[in-house]
Amino acid sequence: MTNSRWSLLASGLACTLAGAAFVASLRVGSASRDSAGAMEPSVGAHESALDSRLRALEQRVATAPGAANARSERAESSAGPDSNALESRMTNLEQRVSRIERALALPEHPPAEASAEQFHKALHALGVSHPGETNAAAVRLERIALRERFLAAFPQDSKSKVEFTYLISDYLFAERPEEALAAITRHARALGLEDWQAELARAEVASSKRQLTNYRAALQRATDDAQIPMGERAQAEFFIAHSFLEEGRAADSRAAFESFISRYQASDKPEVLQLIEGAKLQMNKLKSTGK
What we know:
By secondary structure, this protein is an all-alpha fold. It has twelve helices and no strands. It has helices spanning 3-31, 36-61, 83-105, 116-127, 136-153, 160-173, 177-191, 195-208, 212-224, 230-246, 250-264, 270-288. The longest helix is centred in the first third of the chain and has 29 residues, at 3-31.
């Protein structure tokens, strides 16, 4: 079916939704009047007509692009064409039409010879949020697959490092930390990441898994890299000290914060000075609790 025919489908859905809103307004209005009973036959007739139109749209949407892997979301027919059932079915249709619109904008499988610009547009389309979206997890997996292809094909593209950051984030949101670590190893060199940048990415993965020992180890490896800028080194050292607090190791945290303040107190960089203030605040909290 062509894009224009699916556009007509969406238009038909809009008309159906408008009709349903009219039915709902009739119900609300009639409930406040003693003559509500006289309105029921008219409302019932409208509901019956809307039910038929919704069934037709549901059948058409079921065969639309982007709906092939979607579970059936139509309300049970036994519920009857009352207002609640119609509202539920309309909500489901709105969500499914969102997937259709995405599929029309983004080929499910971009060609192997796709340009970097095609990937940019495809990733942008997948990044757009849709009201009432219920398949966010599936969309995230689509983004992961597409970003993996993009990074493999265009590691030196101007947007590759940003997309790499988004890729790791998507893996973590999908609760796939091991795959995130594998992606760091797989792409870091090709993307031209410094060793400290790769270690900070590994630290993020460890943090998501609440593996604070691994988290500190990755941060320490980053700070040991002579190429790491002062701001990033200071931030890594601050979070090493803070991680001890998260484990309830007050003495180790206090010692780490004291060392941090001593090392960076002469800095004139705003971001470092802000971290020093944060370290002092944590020290004061420890002191006030007698730890």
